[in-house]
C-alpha cells in the first residue's frame, strides 16, 4: 500500500508511529505531512529509513491508498488541526489508519465521508470483543519469550523489539513478533493494542497473542511504558505478567533523567529499575534482565560508545544501541541463555 | 432500598459482594438467594451482619426493589443458571444490579423485560466515558491517602478498607472512601470499578476519584488484586501509582499459600511482598507498608492471635484482624504517621 503519514509539528522526534512505519514497515511511504518541516526530505531528519518528501497538507500529497495518523500524543486525543487532512484523504477515497484512544470512526463527519467515498477507517486501538482474563499459561510455552522493558516511554522498546526480530530472522532463527502498540500493530498487520484493553484483561490479551504465535522458537514481545511511570505502569505490569518472559531487555535513552511528559518525576538509577523489573517478575515467573538497549541518537558515535559502556556497568549485563550499532550482540545474549 | 442478593452455590465464602452489602451497606437485605444453603439464615454462616433468610430462587423472595448479583466469579461472566432469577426479578418490576464484566443490559431478554416492566439494569462495572490518563497529581493532595494492598485477591482489602473508614469516622476523623470494585461502588453508591476501565486509564480513573474526594482529611482507597497475581496485577499497579498513597496496609489470609484460582502459583513470603509493594511505590511516590490486616476467619480466637503475632513478625509492622478484633489499632498507626 501507498501511505502518507501525518505528523504535524512532531516529526521526527515525537512521531513514533511515523518512524516505525518508515523504518520497519513493508508499505510504500509516499509522503510525510508536517507543516513544521514541509519542504524537507525524510532523509534530512532520519537515516537508514525510506526516503519520502515532507509536505504541509493532504492537498500536496501524491496519490495514496491510506493516510496514517503517525503521532501518538499523551492521552491519545485527536487534534482538530488535523481535521482537514483527514477529511481531505477520505474525500479522495483514501482509507485512514489511526492509533488514537479517540476512535475516528465515531466522528460523524469522518464516518459520513468514509461511507460516501467507500473507504475504511481503521482504528487500530479498538480491541477485540472476545478478550478475557489471563489463564496464567504463558510460562508453559516452548518458545523462548523475550520482553523489552523500559526506564520510560519512548526510549526504544518498539524499535529494539523490531531490530531483534529482524536480526534473529537474518541469522535463520524462527522468530515471532508480538506487537502491543499501535505502531507495532500497523507494521505487523495484526495484534492487540494493549493500553486500550479493559484493565482486567491486560495480561489476558498478551497471553492470547503469545498463544496464537506459540509455534515460533523465539517470541519477541514489544513492551509498553515503564514500571516506574506515574500514568502508564499498569499496562507495563500486565504485559510483564501476561507474557511471563524468559528474558528481559532494558531499554533506556542517553541523558534521560525525568519521565517524559511528567517532568517532576525523576527517573531512579537504572540499576534500581533492573531490580524492580526482576522483583516484579519473580512471583509469577522469575526472569532476568539479560541485556540493555541504549538509544544514543542524541550523541556522536564516540560518545555513544562511552555511554554504552557506562550503561553496561550500571545494569551489569551487555548493552548496545541496536539501531546505531548491531542488534546481533543482543541476539547472541538471547541465544546463549 | 430493599434488596435480595443472588449468591448461588457461593454463599458466603465466594460471594464477596453479598458479604459486603450485608456487612457495610445501608440497604435492607430481605433475602439471600442460594440454592445450596436455602432454608438457612444468614446468621448460620456469618456473624455481625444483617440477618436475612436464605431462599432458593427469586420466587421465594419477599417484595424487593432490586436484585443484586452478589457473586464475582473469575472472569466476570454470567452463569445461565441465574437467568430465571434475573428474569423473575425484572418481570416483577424490580431493578437488577450487577458487577459482572458481561453487561446484563446488553442481554436482549433482560433489556426487553426491563423496558416492559419499567425497571433499571445497573451494570456497576460500566465505566464513565470521560476517563483519561493520569496527570500524576495525587501526591499533591493534602489528604492522607491510605491504600489497602494484598498478597492475593479475596484476602480482605475491601473489608479492611470499610472497617478503617467506619473506625476513623467513629473517632471523629474526616474520612472518605474511594471504592474501586463492584461491591464498594454498590455500597457507596458512587465510584469507578477500576478493573473495567481502559488499561491506559487505570491510574487516571483512580486519580479522578481522589480529586473528587480531596477535601477529606483521610482517604481510604480500596485496593484490588495483588501485585503478584498472574492475571490481575495490572489493576493493582495502576491503583498504586494512580493513588500515590502515603501509607499501605498489607492484607493477607491465614494459611493462604497459593494464588486463588491459579493454584500452581505459590505465594511468595509476605516480607518479600512488602518489599515489592514498597519498591514499586518508590519511583512514583515513596510509601511504606505501615500495618497488616490478617483475615483469621478460618481459625479460632486463640489461634488467630498467634497467627497475627507471626504475621507481625514477618512484615515488621503492627497487624490485626480488623473484623474479628479492633480496626482501631490500624487507625492508631495511620493517625501517628
Quaternary structure classification:
homodimer
Q: What name does the CATH topology of the largest domain in chain A carry?
A: Rossmann fold
In one word, what is the shape of chain A?
Answer: globular
Average pLDDT over all residues of chain A: 96
Please list the strands of the largest sheet of chain A in the order they lie side by side.
Answer: 3-2-1-4-5-6
Largest interface: A-B, 48 and 49 residues
CATH superfamily of the largest domain in chain A: P-loop containing nucleotide triphosphate hydrolases
* Low-pLDDT ranges of chain A: none
Please tally the helical runs of chain A, counting DSSP H or I stretches of 4 or more residues: 10
Q: How many individual β-strands of chain A?
A: 14
From the helix content, strand content and strand pairing of chain A, which structural class follows?
A: alpha/beta
Order of helices and strands of chain A, N to C?
EHEEEHEHEEHEHHEHEEEHEHEH
Explain this structure.
Two copies of one chain form a homodimer. Chain A is an alpha/beta fold and about 325 residues long. Chain A folds into two domains: about 1-125, NAD(P)-binding Rossmann-like Domain (Rossmann fold, 3-Layer(aba) Sandwich); about 140-335, 3-Layer(aba) Sandwich (Rossmann fold). Chain A contains ten helices and 14 strands. Chain A has helices at about 15-25, 85-90, 110-115, 155-170, 180-190, 200-210, 235-245, 270-280, 300-315, 330-335, and strands spanning about 1-5, 30-35, 55, 65-70, 95-100, 120-125, 145-150, 175-180, 220, 245-255, 260, 260-265, 290-295, 320. In chain A, the strands form three sheets. A six-stranded parallel β-sheet of chain A has the order 3-2-1-4-5-6, with helices on both faces. Chain A has a six-stranded parallel β-sheet with strand order 8-9-7-10-13-14, with helices on both faces. In chain A, β4 (about 65-70), α2 (about 85-90) and β5 (about 95-100) form a beta-alpha-beta unit. The longest helix of chain A has 15 residues, at about 300-315. The radius of gyration of chain A is 20 Å and the shape is globular. The model of chain A has no long low-confidence stretch (mean pLDDT about 95). At the A-B interface, α6, α7, β12 and α8 of A face α6, α7, β12 and α8 of B. Chains A, B: This is DUF1611 domain-containing protein. Chains A, B: It comes from Halocatena marina.
Amino acid at each position: 500500500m501507498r501511505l502518507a503519514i501525518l505528523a504535524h509539528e512532531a516529526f521526527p522526534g515525537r512521531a513514533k508511529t511515523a518512524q516505525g512505519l518508515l523504518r520497519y514497515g513493508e508499505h510504500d511511504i509516499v509522503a510525510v505531512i508536517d507543516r513544521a518541516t514541509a519542504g524537507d526530505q525524510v532523509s534530512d531528519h532520519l537515516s537508514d529509513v525510506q526516503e519520502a518528501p515532507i509536505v504541509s497538507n493532504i492537498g500536496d500529497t501524491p496519490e495514496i491508498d491510506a493516510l496514517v495518523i503517525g503521532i501518538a500524543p499523551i492521552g491519545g486525543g485527536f487534534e482538530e488541526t488535523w481535521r482537514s487532512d483527514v477529511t481531505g484523504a477520505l474525500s479522495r477515497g483514501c482509507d485512514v489508519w489511526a492509533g488514537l484512544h479517540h476512535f475516528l470512526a465515531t466522528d460523524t463527519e469522518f464516518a459520513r465521508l468514509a461511507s460516501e467515498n467507500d473507504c475504511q477507517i481503521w482504528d487500530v486501538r479498538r480491541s477485540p470483543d472476545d478478550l478475557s482474563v489471563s489463564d496464567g499459561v504463558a510460562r508453559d510455552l516452548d518458545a523462548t519469550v523475550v520482553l523489552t522493558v523500559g526506564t520510560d516511554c519512548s526510549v526504544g522498546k518498539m524499535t529494539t523489539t523490531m531490530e531483534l526480530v529482524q536480526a534473529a530472522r537474518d541469522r535463520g532463527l524462527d522468530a515471532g513478533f508480538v506487537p502491543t502498540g499501535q505502531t507495532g500493530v500497523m507494521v505487523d498487520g495484526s495484534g492487540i493494542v494493549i493500553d486500550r484493553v479493559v484493565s482486567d484483561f491486560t495480561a489476558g490479551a498478551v497471553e492470547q497473542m503469545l498463544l496464537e504465535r506459540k509455534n515460533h522458537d523465539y517470541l519477541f514481545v514489544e513492551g509498553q511504558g515503564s514500571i516506574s511511570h506515574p500514568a502508564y505502569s499498569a499496562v507495563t505490569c500486565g504485559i510483564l505478567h501476561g507474557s511471563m518472559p524468559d528474558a528481559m531487555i532494558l531499554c533506556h535513552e542517553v541523558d534521560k533523567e525525568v519521565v517524559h511528559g511528567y517532568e517532576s518525576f525523576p527517573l531512579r538509577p537504572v540499576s534500581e529499575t533492573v531490580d524492580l523489573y526482576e522483583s516484579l517478575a519473580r512471583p509469577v515467573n522469575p526472569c532476568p534482565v539479560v541485556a540493555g538497549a541504549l538509544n544514543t541518537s542524541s550523541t556522536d558515535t564516540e560518545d555513544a560508545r562511552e555511554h554504552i559502556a557506562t550503561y553496561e556497568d550500571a545494569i551489569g549485563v551487555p548493552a548496545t544501541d541496536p539501531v546505531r550499532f548491531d542488534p546481533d550482540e543482543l541476539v547472541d545474549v538471547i541465544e546463549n541463555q
